[in-house]
Amino acid sequence: MAKDPRYVGNLPKIGIRPTIDGRRKGVRESLEETTMNMAKAVAKLLEENVFYYNGQPVECVIADTCIGGVKEAAEAAEKFAREGVGVSITVTPCWCYGTETMDMDPHIPKAVWGFNGTERPGAVYLAAVLAGYNQKGLPAFGIYGKDVQDAGDTNIPEDVKEKLIRFAKAGLAVAMMKGKSYLSIGSVSMGIAGSVVQEDFFQNYLGMRNEYVDMSEFVRRIELEIYDKEEYERALKWVKENCKVGPDNNRDGFKRTEEQKEKDWEISVKMALIARDLMVGNKKLEEMGYGEEALGRNAIVAGFQGQRQWTDYFPNGDFMETILNSSFDWNGKRAPYIFATENDNLNGISMLFGYLLTNTAQIFADVRTYWSPEAVKRVTGYTLEGRAANGIIHLINSGAAALDGTGEQTKDGKPVIKPYYELTDEDIKKCLEATQFRPASTEYFRGGGYSTDFLTKGGMPVTISRLNIVKGLGPVLQIAEGYTVDLPEEVHDVLDKRTDPTWPTTWFVPNLTGEGAFKDVYSVMNNWGANHCSISYGHIGADLITLASILRIPVNMHNVPEEKIFRPDAWSMFGTKDLEGADYRACKNFGPIYK
Ligand SMILES: C[C@H](O)[C@@H](O)[C@@H](O)C(=O)CO
Ligand SMILES: [Mn+2]
């Protein structure tokens, strides 16, 4: 598989550390094989269940020897550094010496699995070493099975598997974003606070850097033709053949001419190529004499200001944002480029979290309207029913959502969003067929362009999330798991027309718990911290919580069942009854990883 230019260097690996009781002449020797086998079993489990962005199984590196003391701990650390390990998991079936065998690297997310047996107590080591990690301020995840296993049992129990996988995915997400950039194209859109870049957040919490390019760079590259011209011709042809143009909804006198619309397509396609090149570079540009431009900005996520200085004069960025965020384009299927509308970098990071945890495209949306059953009844005469009975939330933005958001991909007959490497030609065809590209509303977008218009299929489990920053508190994450829902066509039409029918709609219903922010649908909307959210396929709230805890970002609202919540052991030292409060206290106490 060709290496994606956005991932400079090797992909981070997972390092496995088998720790052991160092006493020779009997104890250590009797445990060597069992301990190493635990490490191998964990490597196998992860290689079968955790995948990089391109579908490759995660690579695990096992320490060369079991770790009985500090010398072997240092040798393992050296091997891990050489191999590019970004996440560590310590495993043991027995008692070992806590502080002498620990992983001391403060930047590497860490977990310990202590085998729950009683002959040689791995779980006792687990407790001892976690106390050491806590005392030293290096939060680590503790894993030990609910049920006692027999010594020598090589099976990993289901509860342990779930925790190992959840930790590995979140730890890998942390390692994947480290050292990468967020690229702002333009600056702040329409006073949206999320598009103000808070560099300390990126640097201290995510280990990322911030890059900036003025939107005038599009003009320079368009006018001087600094893009791969062969690819451009191919892309434009593909667009003409595959992207259906829908009706122009603009009033007479506000419509763009056919000639302008033709030109809008050309600019829209060029913008997509140029934005991608700005993010990750393009070798073709070097051949054309643009060596500097060929390098890109090492961006794993980007955002485009668009409104208003660009869109008041040039075609909007909707097509560029849609196609970059999708799992395919004129080159066929490929990993999505995470790209935030309105340069809302906080939503961009929410999208990045969802993407790195699932390898699937993310949908950028405004959290636009809560429709109560009463309001729907009043304006349409229809009584909401089924999952929608308690009200619905209209997720919609000005046409920049990933085409995967149509819900037209299927697995076992059900609508899903797949990682790009699982897409079929049929999936791609259906996403395109379900989408119209509508001449942009010129009231908003004076420079025209094309907005993506689709209606997400109902019945998909999804999670919406959003990162917010509060002065004095720092970043906080909010999460709502729920489902997309279908409405009768005529009901959708009435509600959609009240907003802007040229934009993509997702009707969302959160899972209610009857408490707090999840008391009812209204409260979910009412507690949303900003105008945008990222929609991820699947119920990934538990994975987001684990990820947030590694990054020391507290979660201010979620509806994830308590038994799925997995955070570092230290969190319970901040209280065990009020988990939300304990999360805030723990995050504040430890602070960001890269401070
Ligand atoms: C066209 C409008 O300005 C929209 O872009 C606006 O409602 C937003 O999306 C705000 O987030
Ligand atoms: Mn918006």
From TrEMBL:
Mn(2+) 3 binds at D453, D496. It is found in: Cytoplasm. Mn(2+) 1 binds at E342, D366, H532. Residues 180-359 form the L-fucose isomerase N-terminal-2 domain. One of its GO terms (biological process) is D-arabinose catabolic process. One of its GO terms (cellular component) is cytoplasm. Its cofactor is Mn(2+). Its EC number is 5.3.1.25. Keywords: Carbohydrate metabolism, Cytoplasm, Fucose metabolism, Isomerase, Manganese, Metal-binding. The active site is at E342 (proton acceptor), D366 (proton acceptor). GO terms for molecular function: arabinose isomerase activity; L-fucose isomerase activity; manganese ion binding. It comes from the Bacteria. PANTHER family: L-FUCOSE ISOMERASE. Belongs to the L-fucose isomerase family. Converts the aldose L-fucose into the corresponding ketose L-fuculose. This is L-fucose isomerase. The lineage of its organism: Bacteria, Bacillati, Bacillota, Bacilli, Bacillales. The gene is dai.
